[in-house]
Amino acid sequence: MAINRVTCPECGATLKSTAGFKRGATVGCPKCKADFVVEDPDQEDERPKKKGSKATVPITTIRKKPVKAVVEEGGDDEEDERPKKKKKKRRSSDEEDWSYRNSWIRYAILTVLIIVMCVLGYLLHLKQKREAQNASRSDVPVICCDQEGTA
């Protein structure tokens, strides 16, 4: 018989497992990192509890591979008895009405990027044209005249 709920003797946290804990299995508490052995709930009632502790399971120092467990604060059983609320499905019309494919923002950003690329391309063309003109001017010898008119 598997036990679905166990309380940590060190910190009092309630551990739950859907697969259940086997009697005698070593369980590691994810909250306080203490390892303890799972015992039958009938045996737990016979043992005295520590003062100021919610512990119902005795602790031993046997180290085995711990079973992963979920920490539950408090010990309310009423929460498990209530059915969980179902999630509402999103209407399919909401998903179809709006998407990034048909968004005007997408087209506006694309247009701005194309304009920026065109301007940068034009500026690069002007720079290359100026460099070509400067290179052709440097080939022609420049004759400087002094103010006196001698060459």
| Major sheet characteristics | 3 strands, antiparallel
Alpha carbon gap, first and last residue: 116 Å
Q: How many E strands?
A: 5
Structural class: alpha+beta
Name the average pLDDT: 73
The helix content is 25-40%
The global form is elongated
Secondary structure tally, helices: 4
Strand content: 5-15%
Radius of gyration: 40 Å
Structural summary, described in words:
With 151 residues, the protein is of the alpha+beta class. Helices cover 34% and strands 15% of the residues. The chain has 4 helices and 5 strands; from the N terminus they run ββββαβααα. The chain has helices at residues 41-46, 78-81, 92-97, 104-139; strands spanning 3-7, 14-21, 26-28, 35-37, 70-72. It has a 3-stranded antiparallel beta sheet with strand order 1-2-5, with no helix packed on it. Strands 3-4 form a two-stranded antiparallel ribbon. The relative contact order is 0.12. The mean pLDDT is 73.
